[in-house]
Design a protein that fits this description.
It holds the Pfam family SBP_bac_1. With 441 residues, the protein is an alpha+beta fold. The protein folds into two domains: 191 residues, 3-Layer(aba) Sandwich (D-Maltodextrin-Binding Protein, domain 2), CATH 3.40.190; 210 residues, Periplasmic binding protein-like II (D-Maltodextrin-Binding Protein, domain 2, 3-Layer(aba) Sandwich), CATH 3.40.190.10. It has 17 helices and 14 strands. It has a six-stranded mixed β-sheet with strand order 1-3-2-4-13-7. Helix 1 links the parallel strand 2 and strand 3. Helix 13 packs across helix 14. The longest helix has 20 residues. The N terminus is likely disordered.
């Protein structure tokens, strides 16, 4: 596993807003851990997260509710956008300056759990009842080296968002069983009719996930096995790169040079806003931002991602929308755990948070959100759809960021015709094999 020092090259600046929320008076105790702090001693906790304005407001409302129940606790809220957030968190954790409580993306956990232990093990913490969470989900997604280093805040499903209004207008049947071939066929017809139109976004992050999906569908395994060997063959990799090359040539994807400008912020892409591509592949929790960026009255729907007709696993990844972890170096461990428990399990908090982090992972919280009519049916439908055809989960090593960087670099070369699919497959195997030898040490 990569050591923490390998995670950090330099700090990437990100604007975080720090807010110290004032006390609001005591409230009644709840069985979910939102009751008053036992000691009454003044405590200050820092909580960092990324998200949209809606997520910020809902989270601040939940923090205020916690303050009412625990007037001795001050929560300093540190929040901003996603761009640069991952490097900032990794840098701060390695440097000992991170917040007490952290919202993290699940793929980061593997690296943050290797070498120096940066996150608190939640396995034996009495304040957190792991029985509130699906055991398999916890094992597959937040357990590393037999330690539970975070808890799922919600459940996300990989989905394709279709601008139904536009799809109907241009004659695309959005709810078909999409295959890799049919994506190429529909996109070519669309682009041939109007050269300004593309089927979907195609930045490196999205295309890399598609590459991984194609290989998993062929092997029913993550790209890298637990023993640090590759699960795929050169022929399988070349097949995937051939599809990617055709996708950029035939109008499936917006040209990479344009799409990459809006990586991780596709909702701001003028092609999407101006309805010049029909679909976006993303995560179910992103539904609100993609809907909000379209003209009023435009209908947005979801569909399953593409699959081979003889795929060995489903096309839709299911994983935590994000996780919440506790900094191992926090000076207020018990108070931090109480706040985490409150945020994940308290019904009143759940009603305030709604679906801003997708479908709540705790059943009681989910029920509270449903009863309060705060769960967007589009988000829940996307998760339900994905759960019917789930992909084999990625293991820790497959999600390593250095491997992802290699893969995206090769995709870029294919997109710009610097490598043939066969050459790309050779390079992927060589560079992955070399890097895995280094990471295994």
């Amino acid at each position: 596993m990569t050591k923490a020092k390998k995670l950090v090259s330099s700090a990437v600046a990100i604007s975080l807003i720090s807010t110290s929320l004032a006390a609001c008076g005591a409230g009644s105790q709840t069985s979910q851990g939102g009751g008053a702090s036992d000691s009454g001693k003044p405590v200050t906790l820092r909580f960092a997260w990324w998200g949209s304005d809606a997520r910020h407001k809902a989270t601040l409302d939940a923090i205020n509710l916690y303050k009412q129940k625990n007037p001795n606790v001050t929560i300093e809220a540190e929040y901003g956008g996603f761009d640069g957030y991952d490097q900032k968190m990794k840098t701060q954790l390695a440097g000992g300056t991170a917040a007490d409580i952290l919202q993290l993306d699940q793929p980061w956990l593997a690296e943050l759990s290797g070498g120096n232990e940066l996150l608190l093990d939640l396995n034996s913490q009495k304040t957190i009842d792991l029985k509130n969470f699906d055991a398999t989900y916890v094992k597959d997604y937040v357990t590393y080296n037999n330690k539970v280093v975070g808890l799922p805040m919600g459940t996300n499903g990989r989905t394709v968002f279709f601008n139904k209004t536009l799809a109907d207008k241009v004659g695309i049947k959005y709810d078909q069983n999409w295959t890799w071939d049919s994506l190429l066929e529909e996109a070519k017809k669309l682009h041939d009719k109007d050269s300004k139109m593309y089927l979907m976004n195609g930045d490196l992050g999205v295309t890399n996930i598609m590459l991984m999906s194609m290989l998993k569908q062929r092997t029913n395994e993550p790209m890298v096995k637990d023993d640090y060997t590759l699960s795929f063959t050169k022929a399988q990799a070349a097949e995937a790169y051939t599809w990617i090359q055709k996708a950029y040539q035939n109008g499936v994807f917006q040209p990479l040079g344009e799409a990459q400008l809006f990586s991780k912020k596709t909702d701001q892409n003028p092609k999407w806003i101006n309805q010049e591509f029909v679909a976006i592949e993303g995560w179910s929790s992103e539904f609100p931002k993609f809907q909000e960026s379209l003209p009023k009255g435009t209908e947005l729907v979801t569909a399953l991602p593409a699959a081979f007709s003889d795929a060995k696993t489903g096309p839709a990844a299911i994983r935590p929308s994000m996780v919440i972890s506790v900094n191992k170096k926090t000076e207020n461990q018990e108070e931090a755990l109480k706040f985490v428990n409150f945020l994940l399990t308290d019904p009143e908090a759940a009603k305030l948070l709604g679906d801003v982090r997708a479908v709540p992972a705790v059943e009681a919280a989910k029920n509270a959100v449903v009863e309060a009519n705060k769960l967007d049916k589009n988000i829940s439908n996307a998760v339900d759809l994905a759960s019917k055809k789930p992909a084999v989960p990625d293991n820790a090593i497959t999600q390593n960021s250095q491997l992802s960087d290699i893969s995206q670099d090769i995709i870029q070369k294919v997109a710009f015709n610097k490598l043939t699919p066969d050459q790309a497959a050779d390079e992927l195997i060589k560079r992955y094999t070399d890097k895995l030898k280094e990471l295994k040490k």
